[in-house]
Design a protein that fits this description.
Number of strands: 14
Structural class: alpha/beta
Distance between the termini: 35 Å
Strand content: 15-25%
Number of helices: 6
Largest sheet: 7 strands, mixed
Radius of gyration: 19 Å
Helix content: 25-40%
Length: 302
């Protein structure tokens, strides 16, 4: 399937939008090249509720969530991962509602930092977040008229989780799969091999609707995710071709491969190329003198 992104999305700031039975989407007003129109929070249930991804620590977004909750009890707050546009509001929402906070775990990198390496993503990580309950893969949390199953999907971050609304075919895919753009996979927080394995896992699930962390729903998930997989494989081939024709640095590869991309995203693009190169070096399809690094030199294998 050809990969076609859907950028038609009305965030409807300041209110909730019904996106499925007993599911309302509330979009934070934190638009950026990385967040699209903003972070989606989801309010699930009718009487006693769950909130998925409370979002950034933003007073207006908290007030909107509380307006949508409309005085109903909230029993659980689920957090997909610990980027600052998804998890920080959990603490304040817990204070307001008394709900338990659940997630895979605190923030951590997908691998240890190499000697001399600086994590370019430190500013985006919510390192203070600690869930009340750590969710293993497959954990089923039952609420009032709903049940949510944890589907661990590392790749975008090491602790990334999707949440399946049991018995409905609906999956809250957070930043792993989004209709408007590809997910950023950036070392050391993310890992391409993990991302691809998680993508295969979601393809095999066969959910009918994905509700992502940014932008609108994915309405034909299996075909779209196959397109995402093909897109990543094409990017991998492009990187291999740049190495073959003589590009030795990530900066040179980004100039060629991402020449039509918003320059504000070139830093993230470089980290995405590094994620591919880490995987290619591990598979011995590309060589480098030391551990793959953003300023490394890459060559064809001997």
């Amino acid at each position: 399937m050809a990969l076609e992104f859907d950028t038609s999305f009305d965030p409807c700031y300041g209110g909730g939008v019904s996106v499925a039975r007993d599911v309302q989407r509330v979009t934070a007003r934190n638009p950026s090249p990385f967040t699209f129109h903003g972070t989606n929070s989801y309010v699930v249930g009718r009487d006693t509720l769950a909130v998925i991804d409370p979002g950034p620590d933003d007073e207006a977004h908290l007030r909107t969530l509380l307006d949508v909750i409309a005085g109903r009890p909230v029993s659980h707050i689920f957090v997909s991962h610990t980027h600052r546009d998804h998890s920080p509001l959990a603490a304040r929402l817990k204070q307001e509602t008394g709900a338990q906070v659940l997630a895979e775990g605190p923030h951590r990198p997908a691998r240890p930092l190499h000697i001399g390496e600086i994590n370019a993503l430190d500013a985006s990580a919510d390192t203070s977040f600690v869930p009340d309950v750590a969710l293993p893969d497959g954990a089923l949390v039952a609420g009032d008229g709903w049940a949510i199953r944890t589907v661990l999907t590392p790749g975008h971050t090491a602790n990334h989780a999707a949440f399946a609304l049991e018995g409905t075919g609906i999956l809250f895919s957070a930043d792993h799969v989004m209709a408007w753009a590809t997910s950023i996979v950036a070392p050391p927080d993310g890992a391409m091999a993990d991302y691809m394995a998680s993508l295969d896992r979601l393809i095999e699930r066969g959910d009918r609707l994905l509700l992502p962390g940014h932008g609108g729903p994915v309405t034909a998930p299996r075909g779209f995710m196959r397109g995402l997989k093909t897109h990543r494989k094409m990017r991998e081939r492009a990187i291999l071709e740049r190495v073959r024709v003589g590009d030795r640095t990530i900066a040179d590869m980004v100039k060629a491969i991402y020449r039509d991309t918003d320059p504000r995203l070139h830093g993230a693009a470089g980290l995405s190329v590094l994620a591919h190169l880490e995987d290619l070096v591990a598979r011995r399809l590309v060589a480098t003198d030391a551990a793959p690094a953003i300023d490394g030199v890459f060559t064809p294998p001997a």
